[in-house]
């Protein structure tokens, strides 16, 4: 053991002697920052390279994008996405829109009268057919409609006068017979019109103005009735009965107006009231027939 420890001591002393003889350079004397990292080339040896232009970034189509970017985007729906903003939908490159035209003024239907002689001729034809079938209300509609499309038509005016006379609208019939003679004084129906004027003139005093408000209401109501304007006619006849509750003509005309409005029960009552006031009056036969038709319709 003593020999081994002596040998170790000698070995370490030998190593120390060797280290003292060898000179180790000191890195602290010359700092690394003062030394050039890259040695410069000699002038004229090699030409300096030209800078390489950087390529422009190219946009990839949606299908060529990486999978990660596609996963990051939300899936598109099949329906097209429409923006709710009006600004995003506006096309600023389009031509400026023209100003919206001002609305056309409203046309007064009463003053506007279409002109179509072909329609008027067809209405006259159908009107005479209904007249022969004793469907006087339908004939009245057709003749009035013909005069709407061709005012002052001789045939339509004469047919209207005939129909009004059948409906006991004598004042209106008298006026239209005269109107026909003004249009065609020597027409095909001139002789019939003259005879009708003489016949109606004995029952209607056309030169005399209505003496009372009741007669005026009846006259205006009959004008509405001749146009099949049953609602307006009813108002006039009701006003006449308010002034004269026992006027037989107003009762009969009011019954006709109510029947035209499909108010058959009140119409029957006024037909009956007319027969009570004038059992043998000029409209008694028409009133009895109307009552019979209503009874047959309602089953009483």
Describe the structure.
With 300 residues, the protein is mainly alpha-helical. Among the domains are: 113-208, Tetratricopeptide repeat domain (Serine Threonine Protein Phosphatase 5, Tetratricopeptide repeat); 210-300, Serine Threonine Protein Phosphatase 5, Tetratricopeptide repeat. It is 56% helix and 0% strand. The radius of gyration is 57 Å and the shape is rod-shaped. The protein starts with a helix and ends with a helix.
List keywords for this structure.
mainly alpha; 300 residues; rod-shaped; Serine Threonine Protein Phosphatase 5, Tetratricopeptide repeat
* Classification by helices and strands: mainly alpha
CATH fold label of the domain at 113-208: Serine Threonine Protein Phosphatase 5, Tetratricopeptide repeat
Helix content: 55-70%
* Alpha carbon gyration radius: 57 Å
Overall body shape: rod-shaped
Determine the mean pLDDT: 76
Which stretches are poorly predicted, pLDDT < 50 over at least 5 residues? 26-30, 66-72, 82-88, 104-111, 206-210
CATH level-4 homologous superfamily of the domain at 113-208: Tetratricopeptide repeat domain
Specify the number of helices: 13
How does the SSE layout of this entry go?
Blueprint: H1 2-21, H2 67-72, H3 86-89, H4 117-132, H5 136-149, H6 154-166, H7 170-183, H8 190-201, H9 213-226, H10 230-243, H11 248-260, H12 264-277, H13 284-298
Short structural summary:
The chain is mainly alpha-helical and 300 residues long. It has helices spanning 2-21, 67-72, 86-89, 117-132, 136-149, 154-166, 170-183, 190-201, 213-226, 230-243, 248-260, 264-277, 284-298.
């Amino acid at each position: 053991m003593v020999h081994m420890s002596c040998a170790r001591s000698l070995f370490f002393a030998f190593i120390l002697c060797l280290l003292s003889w060898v000179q180790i350079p000191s890195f602290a004397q010359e700092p690394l920052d003062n030394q050039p990292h890259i040695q410069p080339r000699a002038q004229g040896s090699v030409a300096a390279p030209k800078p390489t232009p950087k390529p422009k970034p190219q946009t990839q189509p949606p299908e060529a994008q990486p999978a990660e970017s596609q996963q990051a985007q939300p899936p598109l729906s099949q329906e097209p996405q429409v923006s709710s903003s009006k600004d995003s939908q506006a096309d600023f490159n389009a031509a400026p829109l023209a100003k919206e035209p001002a609305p056309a003024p409203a046309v007064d239907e009463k003053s506007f009268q279409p002109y179509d002689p072909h329609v008027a001729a067809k209405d006259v034809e159908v009107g005479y057919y209904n007249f022969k079938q004793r469907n006087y209300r339908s004939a009245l509609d057709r003749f009035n409609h013909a005069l709407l499309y061709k005012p002052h038509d001789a045939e339509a005016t004469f047919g209207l006068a005939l129909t009004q006379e059948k409906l006991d609208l004598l004042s209106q019939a008298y006026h239209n017979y005269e109107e026909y003679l003004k249009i065609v004084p020597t027409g095909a129906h001139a002789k019939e019109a003259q005879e009708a004027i003489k016949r109606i003139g004995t029952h209607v005093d056309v030169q005399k103005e209505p003496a009372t408000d009741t007669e005026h209401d009846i006259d205006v109501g009959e004008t509405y009735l001749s146009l099949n304007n049953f609602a307006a006619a009813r108002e006039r006849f009701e006003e006449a009965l308010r002034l004269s509750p026992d006027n037989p003509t107003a009762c009969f005309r009011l019954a006709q107006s109510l029947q035209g409005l499909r108010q058959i029960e009140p119409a029957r009552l006024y037909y009956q009231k007319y027969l009570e006031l004038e059992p043998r009056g000029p409209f008694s036969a028409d009133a009895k027939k109307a009552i019979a038709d209503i009874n047959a319709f309602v089953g009483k």
